[in-house]
């Protein structure tokens, strides 16, 4: 045991019968995630190979994941290859090179890896997805991140994939990341993914032409997408025209689904089982983490990141301590070593469920339930521990519907920028953050009032006035690149 805060080896039960009685099927699946982490092929900087991929992800793991994706749906893998081509091309035109380009390429290849676990009736549905189905798809996106964490994938790749669904305006992530604060690789990948999805025939519509796709992307520039990157894609196509479209067709032509060996089929099935089990955890609970036998974080799920206000990339590979998560006892005081569920489950070798308080940003405490599951090998050796979290105070509303209502309440109905209430909320958050920081970055507020706006309404009618406001909002969104929040205070302000 490397951590001094963990019960010593001498306190662990040695009886294999005790360990065996809790060596459940679910634990076996979780053990596979630890195995993925331990099976990582460490890249040596002294290696003679010039291929940068080994610095980003184990080549063995990449092959396994892409094979499992092909086994699930070969067309999704082909889509991922086209998206990788587009993302790499856009980034190259923006001056990217070397390891940064390779990270983006790998992220694009793996951006749909979560679909390995999506049921047939959804992945092959001949129509648009319902809100419930979209919510389920978001679970599988998170599961893909869980598996990639276990594969010890480069942290920049994890960041790109975790932010690729963030809208440029910040509206979909609570305005925590606005504009250029969203990882540029994520902004590039979002546009490459949207372009290929629109260009590809779907069961409910035919693929769109380039000009129509660019019109759709430009319409969403400043809100969903980064307008500068949309323009970079447009310039690339205009400059190379025929070569651009020929290269996309070449990606399709070169993709030939391979035949699987018996071993590859078994590995693909194992990966699929991991996704299926993790879906149960992601859909029933609010988050989880896994530590290995050395008590280093192997997985810290996106749900737990949100619940505990943590960043997985700051935790992965680090040693667990009693202060790793902001947990307290019922009285609101820090947990003692004896109160930590991790120490207790290691000491008795059995799963257990405990209730704690978790401190949220701002100091608010919420009641949570923690399930602690030790994982043992067939020889009785401790392999790691999983702790699964459930927020006992959460609303019973369905997350997708709740998030949609929350988003609608934060946006101006006409211009789709932040409304007055959201502006005041975000300003209060920013001021509070500045007051807490020792060396805060400068904060500025620009108040703009459209001159002679009443004359426009009086002369041309309110519908024309509305169009002016929409265009003004779009102009401001297009001309802000550094994390600025654009909102409508009221009227022409």
TrEMBL record:
Signal peptide from the UniProt entry: none
SMART domains named in the record: HDc
Domain PAC as annotated: residue spans: 352-404
Domain HD-GYP span(s) in chain numbering: 54-249
Ranges where the HD domain occurs: 76-198
Classification via Pfam families: GGDEF, HD_5, PAS_9
Stretches assigned to the GGDEF domain: 441-493
Top-level taxonomic group: Bacteria
Protein name in UniProt: Diguanylate cyclase
Taxonomic lineage of the native organism: Bacteria, Pseudomonadati, Planctomycetota, Planctomycetia, Planctomycetales
């Amino acid at each position: 045991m490397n951590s001094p805060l963990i019960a010593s080896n001498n306190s662990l039960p040695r009886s294999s019968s005790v360990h065996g009685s809790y060596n459940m099927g679910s634990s076996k699946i979780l053990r596979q995630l630890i195995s993925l982490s331990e099976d990582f092929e460490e890249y040596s900087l002294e290696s003679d190979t010039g291929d940068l991929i080994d610095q980003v992800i184990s080549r063995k793991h990449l092959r396994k994941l892409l094979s499992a994706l092909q086994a699930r749906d070969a067309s999704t893998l082909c889509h991922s290859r086209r998206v990788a081509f587009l993302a790499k091309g856009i980034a190259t035109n923006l001056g990217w090179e070397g390891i940064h380009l390779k990270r983006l390429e790998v992220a694009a290849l793996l951006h749909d890896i979560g679909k390995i676990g999506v049921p047939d009736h959804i992945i092959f549905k001949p129509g648009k997805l319902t809100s419930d189905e979209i919510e389920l798809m978001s679970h599988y996106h998170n599961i893909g991140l869980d598996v990639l964490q276990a594969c010890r994938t480069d942290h920049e790749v994890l960041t790109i994939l975790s932010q690729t669904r963030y809208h440029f305006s910040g509206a979909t992530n609570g305005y925590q990341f606005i504009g250029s604060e969203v990882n540029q690789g994520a902004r590039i990948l979002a546009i490459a993914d949207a372009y290929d999805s629109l260009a590809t025939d779907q069961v409910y519509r035919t693929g769109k032409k380039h000009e129509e796709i660019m019109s759709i992307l430009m319409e969403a520039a400043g809100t969903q997408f980064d307008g500068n990157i949309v323009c970079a894609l447009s310039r690339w196509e205009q400059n190379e025209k025929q070569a651009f479209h020929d290269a996309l067709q070449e990606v399709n032509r070169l993709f030939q689904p391979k035949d699987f060996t018996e071993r590859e089929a078994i590995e693909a099935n194992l990966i699929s089982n991991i996704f299926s089990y993790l879906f149960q955890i992601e859909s029933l609970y609010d988050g989880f983490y896994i530590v290995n036998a050395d008590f280093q974080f192997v997985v810290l799920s996106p749900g737990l990141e949100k619940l505990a206000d943590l960043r997985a990339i700051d935790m992965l590979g680090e040693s667990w301590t009693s202060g790793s998560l902001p947990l307290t006892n019922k009285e609101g005081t820090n947990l003692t070593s004896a109160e930590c569920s991790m120490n207790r489950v290691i000491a008795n070798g059995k799963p257990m469920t405990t209730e704690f308080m978790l401190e949220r940003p701002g100091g608010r405490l919420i009641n949570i339930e923690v399930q602690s599951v030790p994982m043992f090998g067939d020889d009785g050796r401790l392999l790691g521990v999983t702790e699964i979290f459930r927020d006992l105070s959460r609303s019973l509303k369905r997350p997708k519907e709740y998030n949609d209502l929350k988003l609608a309440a934060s946006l101006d109905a006409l211009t789709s920028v932040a409304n007055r209430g959201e502006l005041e909320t975000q300003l209060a958050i920013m001021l509070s953050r500045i007051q807490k920081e020792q060396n805060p970055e400068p904060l500025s507020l620009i108040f703009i009032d459209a001159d002679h706006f009443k004359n426009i309404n009086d002369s041309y009618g309110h519908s024309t006035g509305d169009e002016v406001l929409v265009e003004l909002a779009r102009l401001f969104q297009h001309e802000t690149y550094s994390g600025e929040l654009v909102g409508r205070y009221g009227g022409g302000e």
